[in-house]
Amino acid sequence: MIAPLTLEQLQKRFGGELVNGSVSFERVGTDTRKLDEQGLFVALVGENFDAHDFASELEGKVLGLVVEREIAGVSLPQWVVEDTTVALGQIGLLCREQFQGPVVAITGSCGKTTVKEMLAAIFSQRHNVCVTRGNLNNQFGLPMTLFGLTPEHDVLILEMGANGPDDIGYLCGIGKPQITAVNNVMPAHVEGFGSVDGIAAAKGQIYTSLAPGSTAVINADDDYARYWLEQMPEDVKTLAVGLGHDCAIHADNIAMDERGSPRFDLVIDEVAHPVQLQLLGEHNVHNALVAAGCAFAAGIPAAEIATGLAHAGSVGGRLQVHSGLGGETVIDDSYNANPGSVAAAIELLAQRRGKKILVLGDMAELGADAERMHREMGELARDRGLDALFTLGPLGMAASVAFAEGTGKPRHNFREYRALVEVLKRELDKDTTVLVKGSRSARMERVVQALTESADAQEEN
Q1: What NCBIfam families does its record include (predicted)?
Q2: Are residues 307 and 341 in the same domain?
Q3: Beta strands at 271-276 and 262-268: parallel, antiparallel or unpaired
Q4: CA spacing 20 to 30 A to 137: which of 89, 109, 339, 422?
């Protein structure tokens, strides 16, 4: 924290009841396995857990408690509230109000973590950056990022995720960003929003929550760009980024190197700045443009933006390249999947030399159109000339059938990953590239580990 807080401050600002007096604290935790004698413990309640069950055992292990019911038999100061998850956000809000530097927030259906890391690479050249760790981007994770602010930080970068229609508005109420962007809208977590239009409206709250004088960075290539502009609050500045030359920030002369990493001219104020990304995939040009727009809105010079983008590295489970046990190349894109990101992965794989194999786990939370979307991915893989498609999960059968139609190629659909790996390994050699992708629920990292773990261990030794 930038400065200590007290339970009394929280009670006066947000209500609730104090039991056993107040206490000053500088750290906050929610995990009983990681207790801090100098920290405040917030007893969260979920579908399958209730931290209040352990609160009576925390005497001497924490400074104080935030609880939904008074914990009898302990002398620890307690702030008793109606909802501890809301209280967690309220503590985060007070931490945010202590911070005076620029705050950038990113959301979108896919690529938002990559954009966040690109921004961190740009800003960290001259600034001390506090940035969302990993994917801690929800109502629990975002406050944790705010708790990590210190007096040394002068830039805050927040990633915001959503599973329901009001999530982004809630997070903006805590993080209070001044520069925001929706990276894209695609069919992801559709079940939580009802439709893709519902996703666009929910993500758009990152714009409608902006205060006057703030800046909205608009991906002009997204189908919902005009919709967001129509919803924009008065006195909010807008900055368009995209491939079109009518955008204030755009990309020109895009080409791919032999690894599959894009190079392009980043054009800002009609001046071109060459950029060679380390990241794989042409779709990362779009991610780079959104990051560039946010950085430019914060006053970062164009040349410095280009240098930062060139140094941005890959994120775990997102197009990371490994050597496989049989000498094959394994591209780990297992972190998550939706139709848009799978299409981008297929495009990347299609440009590789040698044999090309896609291993696809079921894409989750797609609603009533799930089977159709899987079928379309199979058709795309077939039409882009991939040599084989291995699918894991019941929805993958639709993709496998579509891939095999009219080609005479076998259908490879499995319900268990070990069986998939056993058959897959017979297809691999040093001229093969395997790209592994799927939703988190498919746990496709197990396939990556089965193909690479021993090889990577040998490399480390």
Answers
A1: murF (TIGR01143)
A2: no
A3: antiparallel
A4: 339
Give 31-61 pLDDT, tens digit per residue: 999 999 999 999 999 989 999 999 999 999 9
> Does residue 336 carry a pLDDT above 80?
yes
Report the distance separating Cα 120 and Cα 114, nearest Å. 10
- pLDDT tens profile 243-287: 999 999 999 999 999 889 999 999 999 999 999 999 999 999 999
DSSP element (H, E) containing 275? strand 271-276
The structure's pTM equals 0.87
Can you tell me the distance from the alpha carbon of 321 to that of 85, in angstroms, rounded to the nearest whole number? 38
Note whether 131 and 221 are same-domain residues.
yes
Chain mean pLDDT for the chain: 94
Whether residues 453 and 362 share a domain: the answer is yes
- The answer on whether 430 is annotated among ligand-binding residues is no
- Specify if 294 maps to a domain: yes
Q: Do both 194 and 64 map to the same domain?
A: no
Is there a domain that residue 437 lies in? yes
Which of 102, 109, 22 is closest to 341 using CA atoms? 109
Neighbours of 2 (CB within 10 A): 18
Residues 325, 230, single domain; the answer is: no
Boundaries of domain holding 33 = 5-81
Q: Per the domain annotation, does 90 fall within a domain?
A: no
Structure token digits, residue 202:
């929910």
Amino acid letter, 286: H
Q: Is 148 annotated as a binding residue?
A: no
Number of domains in the chain: 3
Ordered DSSP codes for 333-350: E-S---HHHHHHHHHHHH
pLDDT, residue 458, reads: 38
Query: In 3D, which of 306, 300, 295 has the Cα closest to residue 265?
Result: 306
Q: What is the DSSP string of 206-247?
A: HHHTPPTT-EEEEETTSTTHHHHHHHPPTT-EEEEEESSTTS
110 is in an annotated binding site: yes
On whether 215 is known to bind a ligand per the annotation, the reply is no
108 is in an annotated binding site: yes
Does a structural domain hold residue 199? yes
CA distances from 288 to 160, 267, 307, 325, 424 (A): 18, 12, 12, 33, 34
